[in-house]
Design goal:
Elements (H helix, E strand, L loop, with lengths): L11 E8 L2 E10 L1 H11 L8 E10 L1 H16 L5 E4 L1 H7 L2
Parallel strand pairs: 2-3, 3-4
Antiparallel strand pairs: 1-2
């Protein structure tokens, strides 16, 4: 499949949600290049300010998904903000590389 798959055929998602606890970056399912490109199509290529990252439901993480996640975490760190991260075992393993 290509990066232009429709939302109906993607098996992973990346979303930005406004919650009572602040802005959350949510990754779920098989976060592949198509999911990352769909997110970037909505929000642009630069990291956005988030207060927490919920990646507890990620079952697979592509290189572009890892890059997106790390970019957001590093952006927060450089800005001096602590970001709560809820990783799945897949995400934890990807971040240890």
């Amino acid at each position: 499949m290509t990066a232009t798959r429709s939302a109906a055929t993607r098996r992973g998602v990346v979303r930005l949600l406004d919650t009572a606890g602040g802005r959350a970056l949510v990754l779920a399912g098989e976060v592949d290049a198509a999911a990352v490109e769909a997110f970037r199509g909505c929000y642009g290529r630069e990291p956005v300010r988030v207060d927490r990252v919920d990646a507890g439901s990620v079952t697979a993480l592509s290189a572009s998904g890892r890059e997106l996640l790390v970019d957001h975490l590093e952006y927060a760190e450089l800005a001096g903000r602590a970001v709560a991260l809820r990783p799945s075992p897949v995400v934890r393993a990807a971040l240890e590389r």
